[in-house]
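User: Continuing from earlier, I have the next pair ready.

Assistant: Great, send them over.

User: Here they are, in order.

Assistant: Folding the first of the pair now:
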Amino acid sequence: MEKKGDILEIMNLLPHRYPFLLVDKISEFKEGRSIICQKNVTFNEPFFNGHFPGHPVMPGVLILEALAQASGLLVFKTPSLCPPNESLYLFVGIDKARFKKPVVPGDSILLKVVMKKSKQGFAVFDALATVDNEVAASAELMCGFKELPQKK
């Protein structure tokens, strides 16, 4: 079943906030299998001040972070994958990262994430970021839960 989500749902599921929330919309969701999200890149992004002045390019590590946030949304929207206690879902590894096309202000990035495998709070994803149907970045991402200490 496909489900979509807006920024309010995203903010309810992810702990990230401005300037580090890098997903604006969920376009497509297949529980436990895949998600497609969108990130609208504007000139007002704080990283453009220094990367690079006069030639703004979104840092590749932030494209990977946006993909990792999309993977978190896939997991948090799949009840069977969420841990019973309060946890952080952390980026724990990247393999096969490739950058093919610069992302610049005005671009809309489609963040496509497919779950490859999941076991005991750890998951591996195939991740693809595209702009205008051209690959901007791709990687295999690994993420896992870290349980937070119980509040007293």
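And the other member of the pair:
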Amino acid sequence: MSMPIPKRYKGYTKGLARALRKGAVGILPTDTLYGLVASALLPDAVRRAYKVRKRSPRKPSIILAHSLAGIRLFGVRVSVRERRVLEKIWPGRVSVILHCSDKKYRHLHRGGTTLAFRVPASKALRNFLLVSGPLIAPSANPEGKKPAYSIREAERYFGNRVDFYCDKGVLRGKPSTLISIREGKTVVLRK
């Protein structure tokens, strides 16, 4: 039996957002690179994304949220100091590690006590996230390979193992900066 042909999208559509809310896994342009995305709220979709990407089961993924309010879904509480930092850097190309040890989100933090979040710089993507809900979005490549800069490269990596491809041309961004906020101090973990 052959695999279904992945759907093609040219932009962030309501149909694509609905597909993600129902468990679809696919390739989506973010504000940095193409990401292999799935709903962060659906454990089965997250597991499938990890399997398709061949991602280490111990590594958490960055979660894209529409706003600071969007991370409240995960029970994350931010201090006044953390909030001030987040309001300065978001929306932007900075992912922030925050405390979240709720067992309900084990499929995301992989048994740890933190999750990384980003509120993307792209307004169109933030509006899309309001409809789709929060998404995991590791770069669109199998672990250890270079990121896909185009849909053609992503197709070579993933073929029919994903449900859709959303094409935005060539994206040559860099992965987001990754920071942690500890005791009111910002620590850069990846520039």
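Worth noting for the second one:
The chain has a mean pLDDT of 90. The chain has six helices and ten strands.
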